[in-house]
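Quick question, first post here. What does this chain look like in 3D?
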Amino acid sequence: MSRRTLQLPSWLPIDPYILALIGTVVLAALLPASDTAADVAGGASTGAVAFLFFLYGARLSTAEALDGLKHWRLHLTVLACTFVVFPLLGLASKGLVPYVLTPQLQSGFLFLCLVPSTIQSSIAFTSIARGNVPAAICAGSFSSIAGIFVTPLLAAALLGNSGGGFSADALLKIGVQLLLPFVAGQLLRRWIGGFIARHKKVLGYVDRGSILLVVYTAFSEGMVAGIWHQVTPARLGALLAAEAVLLALMLAVSWYGAKRLGFGREDRIAIQFAGSKKSLASGLPMASVLFGAQASLAVLPLMLFHQMQLMVCAVIAKRRARDPQDPLTDNASAREPVTVG
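> Answer (accepted):
Ran it through. Tokens below.
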């Protein structure tokens, strides 16, 4: 299988996929799906989400995941950042209502704090910064798996009825639409893993297209329900400011907290990049299931945070790459550049 080194542009990027997401939102605003078209879009979105998590399960190597458990202290630290510290900060955002955030935006802000970490961008930034790449791979994978179980439970406990009605039925939908396809992918990986590896690029377009469909369906429902009139430019600016503070706090907590726990430089880099990020790919499908017609406002904070974290972490990774190496604390295994098939 051909390989290439994953590198970011030298200039501060706007992720092309974010532009596609913005275009999808504009399309939903101009041509929202309604009536029969909404039913068709909703059914297609449900199927796309199930297929998306099927691919996640089929891609994850069980052997690599089990091997990664050897570095359990690092993974527990990342999970604590993702599912403990982030949610606590999300709960603190209730103090911003109603002067800074509306109740609906605050619910989306809190939901952002509950979703799992990313995989690909955490690996890329860890590699650029000369961090522990194998640890970043496993940490991101473990977070994604845990998120299938933990995120809905945290949402049910912390958001309550503000998220569109969390109930046993909502959790059952999560199990049917997300967990069941994921497990099916894992079980079938033995037979389809090779096919997925050979067609990784094509299937990458498929899963990204699935997310775009989820976004279109969610924002169409929001337009039909008229909830977008609640978001003013001032509220949007306030949301961006709140998210900038959230990202800065998590970058600091993950970096200096890892130092206090005795991790070396390369492990601290992996912890910072895996512990300060949130996954758009996992969060959007979950929001569509949990929030229903309110999903458009719920995913807006996550979409904005996703682009912000990419831009900020690109700068940090390049600065970390210029740090002097410490042969006594660096892990030799993490010095290899990350590659993707």
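Residues 1-12, 328-341 have pLDDT under 50 and may be disordered.
The CA atoms of residues 47 and 298 lie 21 Å apart.
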